[in-house]
Protein 1
Amino acid sequence: MNQLFPRAGGISKAVIPAAGLGTRFLPATKATPKEMLPVVDKPAIQYVVEEAVAAGLSDVLMITGRSKRALEDHFDRNYELEEALTRKGDEARLSRVQESSDLATMHYVRQGDPRGLGHAVLCAAPHVGDQPFAVLLGDDLIDPRDPLLARMVEIQEREGGSVVALMEVEPSQIHLYGCAAVEATADGDVVRVTDLVEKPEPSEAPSNYAVIGRYVLDPAVFDILRETEPGRGGEIQLTDALQKLASDEKLGGPVHGVVFKGRRYDTGDRGDYLRAIVRLACEREDLGPDFRTWLRRYVNEEM
Ligand code: G1P
């Protein structure tokens, strides 16, 4: 299993786990995948695929489950709709409809049993093969103006091993995340990860560095995941497999963290989801001016 590293570049595959039930958004997610909930006028998942493509990863594998057909439809052609828009001469909407199907080469695999994030990532093994690959979690939106994934790919190509995205959070919030113990490196935005704990109590957290949902992983993680016992919540945790990688470099190279200081929106939480929509709508060139005027008046007069 030992790898020679740093390995030559060429990371091209992104894996997006999307099999979760979305219970926090019921009843909206009773018959609609949570990944399809709109953020302004695009489903959340499209931002994530766009982010992968912007970082040069145009081969996207989605790990889906039952009732996730809408995801496949969204990234496929819709000839009926395209024809109707063509007949109307509505070029602008036509190109918006075609955008999602032209974006990336999409692949899908079903998880079957929802046995945790680690298990979802393991479902990608046959597709990924023996090259490093990225994992993007759909609940985290990273603002395209603050690119993170491209920097992570750069660090993975330079250092080998695996790279996680980290963000400093309030200590009271660390129990919501994987948490990393870190050492500084010569690069201000890069740390060496020496330990990881999934969702620790604040008193047991080794730091306030939270793992946010972006990873560039050495394929050695698959062998480790195959042997990883269910952890927190009875689920096979990706964090536990990464902890093993971090504790023994011989297994698959070092684990580094890229510390992100940009804009991130957690669309898995209802409050943050609303904040993301308001913020992104305000910043849109087409909708922003009117919406900001209305919002200012609403806040001043009605709140
Ligand atoms: C997952 C991971 C966790 C990570 C988080 C980032 O947790 O297990 O380590 O910090 O994503 O969003 P989830 O939020 O799916 O419970």
Protein 2
Amino acid sequence: MLTRIDHIGIACFDLERTVEFYRATYGFEVFHTEVNEEQGVREAMLKINETSDGGASYLQLLEPTREDSAVGKWLAKNGEGVHHIAFGTPDVDGAADGIRGKGVRVLYDRPRTGSMGSRITFLHPKDCHGVLTELVTSASPSSAEH
Ligand code: V0V
Ligand code: CO
């Protein structure tokens, strides 16, 4: 079961300048930053609102750490913009299995580590009407899922 929009991933060339745009324009503050070497991103999470499932929704600003990463390749081709959407679920394994069973390509055999210790996987954009789609289970059951 998918219970919320966990985040919208936005690819940018310069994380600090993009963070400053979201702060100055909308008043959104950085909730968390980290580097995910496996994914090749440096990211800032801006918390937008808490959600009725005990989780939250974020904007995820993404700067590539290397040109051959998913975000690096995408930026070179498309420039800055919305890169993916992510749905939150209490059970990323079950959700991925169910969606795989419907014939949608799930990119990872097993979920990998995402922002703030979450477990994530992705669905191929070509099977999702052009939208790269991520599934997320947050790390902390007490603060995010129940
Ligand atoms: C590529 N395509 C996209 C796309 N990226 N379409 C929509 N949205 C995107 N973001 C299209 C692209 O235009 C091509 O279509 C086709 O897919 C193949 O793309 P490609 O450029 O040849 O690239 P690939 O095939 O090497 O890689 C595409 C995939 C890759 C989706 C497989 O980006 C991937 O593995 N993504 C999952 C990991 C990821 O995105 N990590 C960064 C975020 P045409 O031109 O052939 O029609 S990390 C994150 O979100 C974290 C850590 C978190 O949330 O916690
Ligand atoms: Co993401």
